[in-house]
Amino acid sequence: SHVGKEDAMNIVLYEPEMPANTGNIGRTCVATNTRLHLIEPLGFKMNEKSRKRAGLDYWDKLDLTVYCDFQDFLERNPQARIYMATTKAKTAYTEVTYQPDDFLMFGPESRGIPEEILIAYAKTCVRIPMWGESRSLNLSNSVAIMLYEGLRQMGFPEMTMEGQLHKLHWK
């Protein structure tokens, strides 16, 4: 449905808990031609009524897949190269080379990705550096930070690089 979708990046939310974060992430995915994958259980309803209430008018443009659990996700994406975003990682998210069709996975807001999953992906666990004793960043901010680094490394594929003023003109 989208131009160049085969080269799109993928965001995976493992058991997300807060609808506002998932809504923000969905909007970021639409704006970046990125696929969104949600792994159940979700901490909220995704029916049309709740989407309308949340003002998710772009949701129909979202390339969304929902999975019943992590195993279902793995079975349906057998070749997935998955980067696990975790505060527990030893490697910064900027120290890896992202490629089209990579998957960036984020855990639930209250607890992150389970260590039983992380340990199996030790080589692709990455973290966003933080100052001092900060526990974590907001989930939707973390997704945007990492996604845009991947897109930057790929030269912002097919993305609009220049904006225009509405009433005036740039000189």
In short:
With 171 residues, the chain is α/β, with parallel strands linked by helices. It has helices spanning 19-32, 48-53, 70-76, 115-118, 139-153; strands at 10-14, 35-39, 64-67, 82-85, 103-106, 125-126. Helix 1 (19-32) links the parallel strand 1 (10-14) and strand 2.
Write up this protein.
With 171 residues, the chain is of the alpha/beta class. Helix content is 27%, strand content 14%. The chain has a six-stranded parallel β-sheet. Strand 2, helix 2 and strand 3 form a beta-alpha-beta unit. Helix 1 packs parallel to helix 5. The longest helix is centred in the last third of the chain and has 15 residues.
Which terms summarize this structure?
171 residues; 6 strands; 5 helices; alpha/beta; 27% helix
